[in-house]
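Handout, page 2. Input:
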Amino acid sequence: MSMAKLGGIGTAGLAVTVAGVLANGLAYIVPVIGARRLTAADLSVLATLLAMTAIVGVASTGLQIAVAVHRARTGPSPSGRAALLTVVAAAGALLLVLPVAVVVLRLPAPATLLAAVSTIGVVAAGRWLGEMQGDERFLQLAAGLAVVAAGRYGGVVLGLAAGAGLTVSLLIGAATAILALPALYLLARRRGTPVRGEPLALRAVFTAGAATLATLVVSYADLLLSRRFLPPDASGAYAVGTVLTKGALWAPQVVTVLALPRLAQGDRRTLRLGLLLVGACGAFLVTAAALAGGLAFRLAGGPDYEGLGRYAPIFAATGACYGLVFMLINAQVAAGARWPSAPLWAVTVLLVAAVWLVVPHRVVDIAWSAFGASLAALLATSVLVAVRLRTSVTERQSKDATLSVE
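Output:
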């Protein structure tokens, strides 16, 4: 690989990383400013709406991955119908769930409706993000990610910072989320490029979305279990530990973003290199947690949690394993696997059953259980990928033998 190409990949990786940091930073700032500008009741509403819409927003990631994989395989091809159906499905899910949530969780209807509008804008954005990712236009993708983040969170941040209150802030956020779509369309547009090939199938979007949702569920299951089974102080400490888990999980995800188009083309070298880079990042973070666990907990939760530093490597190792799992799951999606998320759902069920019935309800025991679940998920997905690769080699050899005979 030439130095110019390496430099281009490095620049693209840096740009996507910066965009990811911006998105995560804005998502973090929303509750931080809300805690200072809203009443406790409104802050609780905001946190609940953010959590609910984040789940529905998985449809955006699924759409982006599906479009990127399809486009990397076939070139520019029709994806508008699948994108529209995905948006309609997400809107339908919100129409079914949110009225119930308004009643059961005592949420204000106007704020809930505005949060739903913002989420629909985010889901729609997945199409154009996927087109840029599939074309390997990573600098435009980075700009697109920044635009979506600014639209999704920027308006809410501005409203809260100005003291506009919860409903008005969500109204501004809904407006910026929708207004971001034309800018995203212009970024993704390629003039003079003919659209050809088979249209994107909705099933591919469902598969990618289910895989992303499974990754989130299995990696958050221990946090929810700690909330259920630990005393308030201990569950708060566990929540601080999961900050390290999420950091180790998401820190190397730029590698997966850059690798996905090549994985869709069956590039095994990219898979090996991607796993090596994600694994190296995870190893570095686990080592750092082992050497400076107290500092890690202090940065994540404050000085009151510094004494829990001895548990930092467990949380970091759990996130590092899930980082590798996420890479392998994306490789499965890129290869067209039908149920790549099945092992993750199975591991989630086993983790819940173990903590519910067997594991002592202490921070360290639940943390070790979560680490065991991450290892099980990594083993299962590794086996599936290995079997797929071996099968593809056998099929290729059989085809070559047939051609040589002919």
